[in-house]
Design a protein that fits this description.
Blueprint: E1 5-9, H1 14-25, E2 29-36, H2 43-55, E3 59-64, H3 102-117, E4 121-123, H4 139-152, H5 154-157, E5 164-166, H6 174-183, H7 208-220
Parallel strand pairs: 1-2, 1-4, 2-3, 4-5
Helix pairs in contact: 1-6, 6-7
Length: 234
Amino acid sequence: MTRAKAVVLLSGGMDSTTTAALAMSRGFDVHALTFRYGQRHQAELEAARRVAERLGVAQHVVLNIDLRHLGGSALTADIPVPKDTPLDAIGRHIPVTYVPARNTIFLSFALGLAEVLEASDIFLGANALDYSGYPDCRPEFIQAFEKMANLATRAATEQGRKLTIHTPLIQLSKREIVELGLSLGVDYGLTVTCYDPSSDGAACGRCEACLLRLKGFREAGTEDPAVYQTVGPG
């Protein structure tokens, strides 16, 4: 019996890796999609490769787009990555690590790939509970994009093949994400979540992504297997 295909956005971080593992556990034939989008560090690309290989996905596509031409983010331009933000302050405002329209752009490419593959499912590891306040991780955005997608494709308008965007982590805490991933056998030592890792991939331990990740492992009562340069407050 042929398994249903799904496109999974895979950054190589904790959330996207958990999402990919979950999609596979649900019986999907996973086609992972990763972007080399001009991010200042390449560690996450290597992490995505490791994860895709370990999970045994059907296909791993790496697309080159250059968002450095747009700038406006600490991840793509010469803007310092915030460090040591108090945990209770994370998510109050949209931080400079927000990449303008990134999830809109990524989902658009995922939509194109899904249509070519004749897949009706896209998985995104968006999280709106323990997160940094990005507007394109909210349920309202995902719902709006899904509605647009089903108005914009031949698959939906002519063939009657509706697209569903799955965000299984969107209402989970980082602790719950860690627990889910471990139950699925995810090796988090393969992943890179940090916004400012060293050249060898070691996490800074002080950016908001690191602080939220460490919080999740701490609350789950287990050690984070990632390599850290240092560990910030929290």
